[in-house]
Amino acid sequence: MLAVQRAFVLPPLLMEGGSVAIVTAVIALSWRRTPDLQPGKFGLRYGFGSRIVGAAAFLLWNAPDVLIPGYRHHPWFENPLFGKFVPGLSEAARAQPAVRALRAIALAPAAEELFWRAWWMRWLVQDKFLELPLGTYSPLSFWLVALLFGMEHGPQWDVGIATGILYNWWMVRTKSLGDLILVHATTNACLSAYVLTTGKWEYWP
To answer: So where are the chain's domains?
Structure first.
């Protein structure tokens, strides 16, 4: 959907609704065949701690821009590789806050944690990744996943990497996909609330 959006001008409802529909369909069709999504392995053993870690990631994400005005416009962050940190969203994009919040809080955490920490952190250790427990630590997989998780966030790559390190550490600590989804959902819920109350749409996950 992100690639399509770059190539074509889509109505915001179609873009947001399409993203929600695709992620929902993939999870619905695959969860019975995905061991990490089964109740016994999915886990949720550190609910309170996971919420604290998620809130800490939210504070970490916003701290540089709050403490140092103009921080995000440094050439380290705004350049041809990472693009520009552009305040705000279009009026059309802001017209669908409920759908965007649903995607950010309920769907993106599940999809991203399945990709980054349930799959890739283990696949980088060995191809038959399901033979490894969730949260298996390897220096290469730990730091590469944190680096690439951060880089996908464009001009916010620095706080993205820091958040990736925090999330990876929590996966190694808890070995629980459910707790990681809760951490990510908490961060995104805090960011969504921050955006809706301050109007700083550029922070919307």
So the answer is: 2-203
Tokens for 196, please give them.
């809706």
Nearest-angstrom CA–CA distance, 188 and 103: 10
Return the structure tokens found at 178. Answer: 């459910």
User: pLDDT tens for residues 59-104?
Assistant: 999 999 889 988 988 899 988 888 888 777 666 567 678 878 888 8
Confidence at residue 90, expressed as pLDDT on a 0 to 100 scale? 62
Please report the DSSP string for the chain in residue order: -HHHHHHS---HHHHHHHHHHHHHHHHHHHGGG-GGGSHHHH----HHHHHHHHHHHHHHHHHHHHHSTTGGGSTTTSBTTTB----S--HHHHT-HHHHHHIIIIIHHHHHHIIIIIIIHHHTT-S-GGGSPTT---HHHHHHHHHHHHHTTGGGHHHHHHHHHHHHHHHHHH--HHHHHHHHHHHHHHHHHHHHHH--GGG--
Closest to 58 measured CA to CA, from 197, 192, 150: 192
Cα(89)–Cα(3) distance, rounded to whole angstroms?
A: 18
Residue 1: CB atoms within 10 Å: 16
